[in-house]
Amino acid sequence: MIIDGKGLSNHLDSSMKAEVKALHKVGIEPKLVVIIVGHDPASQIYVRNKHRKAIKLGITSIIERRPEDFTQDELLALIDQYNRDETVHGILVQLPLPKQIDETAIIRAIAIEKDVDGFRPENVGKLFNNSEGYYPVSCTPKGIMTMLAHYQINPKSQHAVIVGDSNIVGRPMGALLLNAGATVTYTHILTKDLPSFTRTADILIVATGVAHLVKGTDIKPGATVIDVGMDRDANGKLVGDVDFDSAKNVAGAITPVPGGVGPMTITSLMQQTLELTKLATRKTLEPVK
Amino acid sequence: MIIDGKGLSNHLDSSMKAEVKALHKVGIEPKLVVIIVGHDPASQIYVRNKHRKAIKLGITSIIERRPEDFTQDELLALIDQYNRDETVHGILVQLPLPKQIDETAIIRAIAIEKDVDGFRPENVGKLFNNSEGYYPVSCTPKGIMTMLAHYQINPKSQHAVIVGDSNIVGRPMGALLLNAGATVTYTHILTKDLPSFTRTADILIVATGVAHLVKGTDIKPGATVIDVGMDRDANGKLVGDVDFDSAKNVAGAITPVPGGVGPMTITSLMQQTLELTKLATRKTLEPVK
């Protein structure tokens, strides 16, 4: 079975469109600000795709482009401006940032109620502690959970193996799966005999940035394989971290690249923009004690 | 090899005593407040042991005992009093709390600079993201890392298996081991075929509260086995989550119960009290921009 992230993303658009329309009717205009510094080519594509999706859904999208030599103080001032702007509900700073800017400081400068990427330590801590209540979560793992739910793949008591333990994908992915009742193994660059782990996975999440790292022989027959990679092969073709051709006949379900995880990441971003909009405007209407 | 947590804890006392003495000389008096609500017998013992260790080291220790029917608002007011008290450097609320009190709300009420247990979401998030800089971490896993380092057991590229995924022990333990370069597997009550995981562990951490859950046959020969359990067997004897008698001949290194993890938890608490004291007083002397 091919997990059609693109199709699911488009399917979820209609309900989000309706939600935006309903918010507009009561005078609420969901607004997302995306800040991009420099000219990383992949980042340019991601930002463009986010903007297009927002427009399609009726979400107001502002892209702030700044040059490669933009300073940290200038970026902090820009964030501060949007933190104080009550018409803005989500602020996203596209990573990676140029060398002169400290990503950690930038992430912590975004107001917690506008942290649409869920990268602030408070939101990460709530995720890792499986806290109650709403908090934003890193968009790629969130989108993967939405895909698993839609395809009725329940992680409870399954062995989920994460390959790659980045703060943006691997670590929050493991936390979400642990919170859903999975047994979770984190593997990474220092792991010895990686295939001995991947072969025991009922759900295998690969997020390493290494083209075709995982082959069909590294996969347990029938497993669900989620490929987060967006790599280029020797011919410049867009491929994943999983060797799709050898993996597709072993896996029970697998995401393609492109058309798998990528579109769902953007869908999660839009969902979280709407959640933060509702939280912010509800707070205005009914002040919390 | 038996890992002597009690001995290591006593060994570390001398350097902490010297540190407290040096702080006293410059007019700084490290002070820890422990709040205990109700009469849970295990909690009474833990609090007494913490108090004794603080006294031994020269740390000022205040125990605030409150009755079982103490309300959440009363507890919040007590915490607020110590948050505003500049002579206090660490505040610990002994868990569990009686049913009428929301633990999450209490944890988040402690000022972040006095969160000596490292339970606030900001500190948990920093741990999970392997952030730079100092932040307090849950004391039991921190003490286990200190033991591993002292016994020169390097987690890098080792497979660490955590049994029990609580927010106080299992989850932060896995994060610390992941940050140290281990491959980490979280297992728990929903895990299928637990021994199939424990038998692959180079480092096995058991924190379930189930007496003698893990037997010698569940352990990989030569593994390091850390037993966080403090359970009572049928005869009322204090035992661990690991069946020590069958495990000690299989494990390469193992902690006893009592005398293993318990004393190191208290040592970590004292270390973190001193760290927070130094941070708070340094801040007074050299204001951060």
Automatic annotation (TrEMBL), chains A, B:
UniProt family annotation: Belongs to the tetrahydrofolate dehydrogenase/cyclohydrolase family.
InterPro entries membership: Aminoacid_DH-like_N_sf, NAD(P)-bd_dom_sf, THF_DH/CycHdrlase, THF_DH/CycHdrlase_cat_dom, THF_DH/CycHdrlase_CS, THF_DH/CycHdrlase_NAD-bd_dom
Lineage: Bacteria, Bacillati, Bacillota, Bacilli, Lactobacillales
This protein's pathway: One-carbon metabolism; tetrahydrofolate interconversion
Start and end residues of each Tetrahydrofolate dehydrogenase/cyclohydrolase NAD(P)-binding domain: 138-278
Purpose of the protein: Catalyzes the oxidation of 5,10-methylenetetrahydrofolate to 5,10-methenyltetrahydrofolate and then the hydrolysis of 5,10-methenyltetrahydrofolate to 10-formyltetrahydrofolate.
EC number: 1.5.1.5, 3.5.4.9
Organism: Secundilactobacillus hailunensis
Assembly mode: Homodimer.
Gene3D superfamilies in the record: Leucine Dehydrogenase, chain A, domain 1, NAD(P)-binding Rossmann-like Domain
Name assigned to this protein: Bifunctional protein FolD
Domain Tetrahydrofolate dehydrogenase/cyclohydrolase catalytic: residue ranges: 3-117
Key words, A-Z: Amino-acid biosynthesis, Histidine biosynthesis, Hydrolase, Methionine biosynthesis, Multifunctional enzyme, NADP, One-carbon metabolism, Oxidoreductase, Purine biosynthesis
Cited Pfam families: THF_DHG_CYH, THF_DHG_CYH_C
Residues that coordinate or bind NADP(+): G164, D165, S166, I189
Catalytic activity: (6R)-5,10-methenyltetrahydrofolate + H2O = (6R)-10-formyltetrahydrofolate + H(+); (6R)-5,10-methylene-5,6,7,8-tetrahydrofolate + NADP(+) = (6R)-5,10-methenyltetrahydrofolate + NADPH
Stored PROSITE patterns: THF_DHG_CYH_1, THF_DHG_CYH_2
UniProt KW Hydrolase keyword: yes
Oxidoreductase in keyword set: yes
